[in-house]
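Allow me, if you will, to draw on your knowledge of protein folds for a short while. I have a record of one protein: its chain in single-letter code and its fold written as discrete structure tokens. I should value your view on which stretches of the chain appear to form regular backbone elements. Thank you for your consideration; the sequence and its tokens are set out here:
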Amino acid sequence: MTLIAHISDLHVSKSDFDEEMFMTAVTQINNMQPDMIILTGDLTNNGYYTEFEQVKRYLAMFEAPLFAIPGNHDARNLGYQTFEELIGERSWKLTMDDQVTVIGLDSSSPDESKGHVGTPQHMWLEHQLDECVINDNFSIVSLHHHVVSIPQTGRERNVLSDAGDILKTLTTHEVDLVLSGHKHVPNIWRINNTLIVNAGSLCSYKLRGKNKNSYNVYNITDDEIEIYLNEVKGEKFLFGKYSRNRM
């Protein structure tokens, strides 16, 4: 069994970050003892160096290995450079126990809200997913911007500019999970055999309607994927349960 916590959109700043909410989430996730934590972008609100310094201190409070990718807010004010200095690589690949492969993509562009993966990174992604198919690995792709529009989020403006090409690659390789943030609204789409899951905002005040601060938890076994939606100061419930892909 593999247990993964998926957090997103912290928006660390003086105005939009709820520190108490974050500390509550840290305690919950540490008690859960996940195998890893995936953070799908917008660690900061403005990409300022001082915000990234704060983020680094906050993320050190998590006990499980944490892997982050930048969001559009992180790419502001030279934040795309600061991310690499203080957080880590903006795109990456890791494999757990030779069975689960997780790929992180940088979909941000400096000082822009819209998302774009781009041809070089797309080619790299295809190569990594080819290996997943050959090795029959459970595959997870994480990126900040969503590849499919999210309901109840108002006018669509910031879906990936190359979403069609990326979505084709993800579905033809039967990627098991695609994880995103950005919209601050939890959602699950299933396209062919690929689950596309969006996370809410973990601890920012930037919430739509009645949505609450939340994070997702994935319980992956040999036979199925259970997705739980955890409201930081509310309910925890089964968001979706699906059979595993068999290639």
